[in-house]
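Quick one, probably user error.
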């Protein structure tokens, strides 16, 4: 249990990466972790676009003011989902994203969640850049790479936000 909590605390938003590539095996490991997430009625509505092409990553970096790190990451995962497969697609894709982030931390890689949904303009931009069909929703971007910055493990536990047996 201690190792699991250490990994959870180790996961931090890393926005700067070295030029070292992320291996196919590391990408596969993160995708396997993502797809091990729970989903409502086991619908598994998620889809993932793995973006390694530098020009496409630069275009993704233009999605909004906080997506610039996509250009510097060796790989960007685009987490999508079929809204028609689950009314809980946001929760399902979010659980998959968190698993992907934890797997990255376990591999000593840096990653950050870059929100796209629910902004329709941002979704449209990502769809256009990557040719994602209109019936597939874009939840987020996850740039991943070998970290060029270091952040200490942490928890943000706040006992004031915990209520027992009622609010």
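Nope, works fine. Designed sequence:
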């Amino acid at each position: 249990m201690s190792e699991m909590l250490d990994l959870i605390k180790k996961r931090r938003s890393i926005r700067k990466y070295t030029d070292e590539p992320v291996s196919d095996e590391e990408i596969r490991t993160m995708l396997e972790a993502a797809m091990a997430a729970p989903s409502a009625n086991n619908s598994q509505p998620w889809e993932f676009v793995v973006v390694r092409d530098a020009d496409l990553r630069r275009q993704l970096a233009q999605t909004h003011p906080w997506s610039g790190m996509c250009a510097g990451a060796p790989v960007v995962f685009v987490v999508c989902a079929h809204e028609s497969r689950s009314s809980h697609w946001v929760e399902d894709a979010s659980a998959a994203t968190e698993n992907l982030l934890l797997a990255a931390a376990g591999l000593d890689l840096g990653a950050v969640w870059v929100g796209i949904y629910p902004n329709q303009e941002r979704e449209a931009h990502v769809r256009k850049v990557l040719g994602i069909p209109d019936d597939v929703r874009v939840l987020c971007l996850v740039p991943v790479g070998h970290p060029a910055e270091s952040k200490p493990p942490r928890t943000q536990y706040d006992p004031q936000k915990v209520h027992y047996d009622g609010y």
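The first strand starts at residue 46 and ends at 51.
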